[in-house]
Amino acid sequence: MSEAKRGDNVKVHYTGKLGDGTIFDSSDGGEPLEFALGSGQVIQGFEEGVVGMKVGESKVVEIPVAKAYGEHNPEMVIQAPIEQVPPDLNPELGMRLEMGGANGEILRVVVVEIADTHITLDANPPLAGEDLTFEIELVECAAP
Q1: For the structural domain made of 9-70+127-142, what CATH number should be given?
Q2: pTM of the prediction?
Q3: Rounded Cα gap, residues 15 and 29, in angstroms
Q4: Cα 133 to Cα 40: distance, rounded to the nearest angstrom
Q5: What is the dihedral of CA 45, 47, 51, 54, to 10 degrees?
Q6: Whether 120 contacts 68, CB under 8 Å
Q7: Which residue from 109, 129, 108, 106 is spatially nearest to 121, judged by alpha carbons?
Q8: CA dihedral angle for residue 75, residue 77, residue 81, residue 82, rounded to 10 degrees
Q9: 58-63 and 96-100 beta bridge pairing
Q10: pLDDT tens across 13-53, in order?
């Protein structure tokens, strides 16, 4: 039985946990996650964990911040005057929004503060700054 390698198309079942054991995502009860190894479709540490696995094999992979979503970047926390909030938007703490970036890209942000004069939005990935643990089972592996 061959091992998963860069370029292979793989399907995996997984459960992702934070450092305190809280489950933040899982394919349990659903379809397996499908991606090509080496394509950058998943975080680096997850991909590295799958490389070398054999179909039917399960393992636990500890992924440090640097190979997950990186450190929380304070420069990605944006403060805007409250007048810039569209009048039909009723922002609430924790609300997820999409907004246009400077280069035309779509930024996904979370409302982290609402004050009389401003609103603060965080454009960091929700799991930035977190070490992650994944339980991974390789379900399928096929050469491209």
Answers
A1: 3.10.50.40
A2: 0.82
A3: 11
A4: 19
A5: 110
A6: no
A7: 109
A8: 180
A9: unpaired
A10: 999 999 999 999 999 999 999 999 999 999 999 999 999 99
Confidence bin at 103 (pLDDT 50/70/90): confident
Selected from 2.40.10.330, 2.60.40.1930, 1.10.443.10, 1.20.1250.20, the CATH number assigned to the domain covering 74-122 reads: 2.40.10.330
Return the structure tokens found at 104: 């035309």
- Dihedral sign for Cα 66, 97, 30, 7, please: negative
Place of tokens 């922002």: 91
- At residue 16, the 3 state secondary structure works out as strand
Torsion of CA 42, 2, 61, 21, to 10 degrees: 90
Amino acid occupying residue 82: I
Q: Where are the domains of the chain?
A: 9-70+127-142, 74-122
Whether the domain at 9-70+127-142 and the domain at 74-122 fall into the same CATH topology: no
Helices (H) and strands (E) in the chain, counts: 1, 9
Q: 18 and 130 in contact (C-beta within 8 Å)?
A: yes
